Amino acid sequence: MDLPGAGSAYLPAPPPGLRALAVSAGAVRLSSIAANLRERWHYEVTACIDQAAAMAELRAGNKFEVVLVDMHSLGCGAPAIELLECAVGGMHVETYAISESGHRFGPLVMEDLDVLKKHNDNEASNGSKSLEATQNGPCNSSP
């Protein structure tokens, strides 16, 4: 006798074929991001340890529904911003930046990238802007 709610027959099936690209230079953090995308959001995840590998995935024409970029591990510099520009502006993929504390910001728009560029340019001064200043601030309800 089967009880209501028992077994996998009563769990909704995840949507098929949703793909995510996770990028982090930190292996442990990348593993955690990928596991969250798989378990919580049911994405098929392509994990890249550096910006160059992620750019190659995007430019190869691979279709992704979402891109998550760990800005802290990539140094928040020009390579990370170039990757975000490619995903947001070139490939038009829903893209999120992840801060040092693990907060997600997005989906990012091109204006947000201008804020990140200014932050990168002014990083040494005390007046620099943070990821919290992006148009689409912390977003913890989406991947």
TrEMBL record:
Q: Tell me which domain of life the UniProt entry assigns to the organism this sequence originates from.
A: Eukaryota
Which stretches does the entry tag as region Disordered?
Answer: 120-143
Residue stretches of biased makeup (Polar residues):
123-143
Q: What is this protein called?
A: Response regulatory domain-containing protein
Species this protein is from: Aegilops tauschii
Per the UniProt record, the lineage of the source organism begins with: Eukaryota, Viridiplantae, Streptophyta, Embryophyta, Tracheophyta
